[in-house]
Structure formats: C-alpha cells, structure tokens
Amino acid sequence: MARVIAGVGTSHVPAIGAAIDNSITGDDYWSPLFAGYEAARDWMRALEPDVAIVVYNDHASAFSLELIPTFAIGVADEFPPADEGYGPRDVPVVQGHPELAWHLAESLILDGFDMTIANKLPVDHGLTVPLSILFGEVDPWPCPVVPVCVNVIQYPAPTGRRCFQLGQTIARVLEDYPDDLRVVVFGTGGMSHQLQGERAGLINREFDLAFLDALSADPHSLVEKEHVEYLREAGSEGIELVMWLIMRGALPASVKEIHRHYHVPASNTGAGLIVFEPA
Fold this sequence. Notes:
Layout: E1 2-10, H1 14-21, H2 31-35, H3 38-47, E2 51-56, E3 71-74, E4 78-79, E5 94-95, H4 98-110, E6 116-118, H5 125-135, E7 145-150, H6 160-174, E8 181-188, H7 205-217, H8 219-223, H9 227-234, H10 242-249, E9 255-266, E10 269-278
Parallel strand pairs: 1-8, 2-7, 2-8, 3-6
Antiparallel strand pairs: 1-10, 3-7, 4-5, 9-10
Helix pairs in contact: 1-5, 4-6, 6-10
C-alpha cells in the first residue's frame, strides 16, 4: 500500500522562486529566510519520498475566472512550468505519477469529492516554489508529483473542514493502492498577506505563529475557523492557509514536529515552514 510518511506546510511566495532563480538567496534581505530552509532540505534528502502530493492554488496560469474548479487533480505524465507573464521559471519539468493520480481521482470521486481531472496542467509558482524550498536547485526533481489544485481565489473557497476531510480521505485511499509508496504531502500558500486594497502589505505575526502552534497540537481548532477570520486576521490571501489543512488531515492525530521556520517579510508576506512526521 501507499502511505503518508510526512507532511510539509510552506508558503509559496513567488519572490522566493525569483530569489533562487536569480542567485540572490545570500543577499542581506533573503539570507535569513533561506537559512531557515537548510534543516528542512537536509531532512527531505534523508527522507527520499517516492511521491509528493502537492496541494496548491493556481494563479491564473492553468485556470481563469472562466473556469474555477474547487478541487482539481493532475493526472498527466508531466507538468511544465507555467509562463506567468515573464517566462516560465528555469526549473525542471515536474514529472507526474499517473497511476497514483488516477487511483486518487477515482477513489476520491467515488467517496464524494467532486475532483476535476486535469489531463494537461501547467504549474506555476504555487507548486514549483515549494519544490524549490524543500528540494533545492536540482535537475530533475527527485520524485514524481501529484498536483492537487484548490480554489482559494474566487469566493466561495472550500471550508477548512472540507479541506481537512479531503486530507483524511487521501490518506485512507492511499492504503488501497497496490504498490508500496512512501508519500509526502505538501500544503502550500499563505501565511498572512494581502496584495491589494487599503490593507495591502498586512502581516499578522501573532496569527501566523498561533496557526503553526495549532496545526501541530490542535488541528481541529483550525478546522472550525471560518473564512471571515482568515480574511480579517491574515488578509485576503491568508485564506490560502486552508490548503495546509489538507496536508494535516492526511497525517494522524498525533504528529512529531521536525522543523519550524517563520520569517517576515518575504516580499510582503509572512513566510512559514513546518515539517511533520507521524508520531
């Protein structure tokens, strides 16, 4: 059977990818952020997962306001880096795992999750930046990826409860997969930030740190958190944090926190990273 061996929650700030791509991670502005990634990268190299399920949101690269799936899953052989207006990132093409992806799609849909099946899916910074954060500058990426895309752009986004339930179901249906695979689940996005309006530049350190504490010790308190609280406390883009609950739902109730890092600002965002293994 396949099984979840670890979970990662991480911000997917596009400027982090740009810092890597332009070789400025050692600059005064960026070095404190990237210094906090080294322990997680060492851990990931030692972990050597067979597959990564990466939960992220698209930023008008594969989808637009004309077509907005609540949950989508990529089932292709590969996923090219998207052109986000300034050319695609110079990173490896993301290799898929069609067999596992189709198993997940079938099982999740028959279990009541209306997944949109994506046979073609360019992936933007929402997915490639987390890979860069955890795997570093490598070619190729060290494991195949199953992309799971979540709508947190257009109201209404899925609730935290539904996201947590999706993670629980992913973990359960992995157990029915015939091959022995070691899977790491990424939940990405956030943390607190707002990109527009009167509150542009909002960063709420207290909220972000409390979220990390609860994600580790009391995830069910986050499951009940309403959209409006994310918006009020963490800014309009803080709602991305519901995607971390898919990752946490895929893990058992009791987890071991391996690594945590929080830094502000990363661009105009509170950047967080947390790593779990089953206890």
